[in-house]
Design goal:
The chain is mainly β. The protein has five helices and 38 strands. The longest helix is centred in the N-terminal third of the chain and has 22 residues. It is globular. The chain starts with a helix and ends with a strand.
Amino acid sequence: MERALSNVRRGSLAVLIGVLCVSGRSLAAPVAPPAGSDAVMRRAELPPVATEARFLAQQEPLVPVTPTAQTPDPEKPAPSPQQEEELEEVTVQGTRSYRVKRSSTATKTDTDVMDVPQSIQIVPQQVLLDQNVNTLTEALRNVASVTTEFRDGTGADFYAARGFQIGADNIRLDGFRTSTRTELYNVGIEQVEVLKGPSAVLYGDMEPGGLINLVSKKPQPVPFGTVALNVGSYGNVWTTLDTTGPLNAAKTLTYRLSTRQESANSFRDLVNGNKFFVAPALSWQISERLRWDLRVGYQYLFRVSEFGLIAPTREFSSVNTLPLNRFYGEPSDNVTSYQTNVTSTLEYKFGDDWTLRNLLGYSGYRVIWQPTQPLAVLEDGRTLERNQFVFDETTERYNAELNLTGRFATGAVRHQLFAGIDYTRSSRPSVFLDGPTTPIDLYNPVYTNPPRSLQPTSGSASDSSEFNNRFGISLQDQIDLGDNFKLLLGGRYSFYDAGRYQELPPQAPTFNNAQRFSPRVGAVWRPTDWLSLYASYSDAFTPASGRSATGQLFKPITGTQYEVGAKAELFGGGLLATVALYELTKQNVLTRDPDNPQFSIQTGEVQSKGFEVDLSGRPLPGWDIYASYAYVDARFTRDNVIAPGTEVGGVPRNTLSLWSKYEFGGDLRGLSVGAGLYWSDNRWNVFSTANLFQVPGYTTFDAMVAYRFDPRWKVQVNLKNLFNRRYYTDSDDSLVFIPPGAPTTVDVSLSYTF
């Protein structure tokens, strides 16, 4: 407790000093709305907000708009002092929407989501704030067909989309390959965009399930800032600062600073830690046509490592005999990580229709992991065998892109063109040492805290290094044929080469390379302004490492998707509804060679079929809703080990999420309440060649109440797992790694806008 309070004092002091030093202005300065708006809503749909004129710019959440200079009309006389007094009390209408109308993730051009022939779901900043989202996992619970497949001992979650595992290359920051983990800090992220299905035509090799793109907050030319303090269950405390504004009188140089400091504790015994995040950004309008943006992000994390609960017998239900908070590692177990991301974008406009962009990026991630790992429960049903290991890995990625976008016409046909080349180099050296340690009693654990002096001779050890180079050329044309009919045609040629060196134990280096053309075809028909019908075909590929028994390199693992769907703008455009049906097949999957069991052959296949429904927006004044439902049937269709028809582990057949918020008016103006639920169907175990047992499904409920009692001050209370449901997110096939969900948690936050 003393350490937590100390962290609170340091974090709060750091934030308050940052407010004074970075903003360089009085706390009473006018406030501009934050970035991230998508469209101005109709007046009838927006609740009125009355306040004094001097506080109008401080209203959050007003609809953000890009400020433009306005020249006074010389024919209109200036208001008299009397008139100025009469204007002191006014009504402002505006809101931050649950709906985002445009995105660049799906096409790398600014496109109305109604014109994208593929399902894309965007979780906007306001949903993240209202739900008090703190991890990427919490954000993705809102997205249809995206689920948590398993969690490792570092606390990081791994995801599946439409039945297929989301690899590291499927998670991007502003479109860049990065080493982003599952921490998600609202203070630095504007929204989370998920493109469902393959997207190789724009992003290169990756798993076919989908792409997750975290869109960072950008500098704004008008001063704005928020400082917040959050106190939660189990001693969780964090402070945040987000401030932006101009650095010169002409407002051609702007900045943004987002930071968060957290004392991260847990409902699990002995599990605690600290986190720190900071992301400064600059934007420089060098000339009317030339603009440069720079963003740097740094994140430090320290936490006690843990693997969850254990099933004492081969029955999954036996895990319920153990307390939810029971810890089976050692107090000295820990994981420490350091992450740095740097992105630079130089943009030049050739008139109004053509833009050339140069993007450069660096991502570095180092993790030092020292856990005690569960191995197996002995026949007595209470003695757990364990081992300890040390893992030290550093990942570095260098990215470069050159993109050209433009609009032109060929007769009556209009085009929006994207052409790009990109290159990525990645390296990943790692060291691993492990050895046995003392067992522990499941029902009466005694922590011995053995010293960590593992040597290569005490168990297994490895010292290896991997690298890969990726290069691609993409071309895409969005064609407007008139009569509300649009085509999307795209293709990419990708080059990939990789290598692996291992010194301990000594192994000969291995190398792999691949080339692949990836097409994309889509069509959109809008019979009315509010309805969009679409169909598409898209492609994905993932390089396969290793060689066959004959010494041949494996071909890339491929994925193909057929998708049809409909998107509708309902309630006068306030609510967006999307329905999608798809068939996604992954081919050239590695499976055991029946003639040479120590080798693999590429005859495996996995197929996923399903449909999704999602809703987002404001159907009625004051009422916001964000909801999704997904049905996923993912199965192995060809394999030499896994029986055809076996369901993919870790993927629930049905999931449903619903979140709704209401903002009161009249005498209750300033008050808002929200509630939601998340339901997951049963799922089979992961890491097995057979469906051995099912992790039970579950339903959790959340709630929120917030009150803005002043244009600047806001208090919010969030309750998660409101009815204290005991549930588990996944399990491995040995039943010694079962992460439990958190019981009821309460977070209270106080924010000040300046």
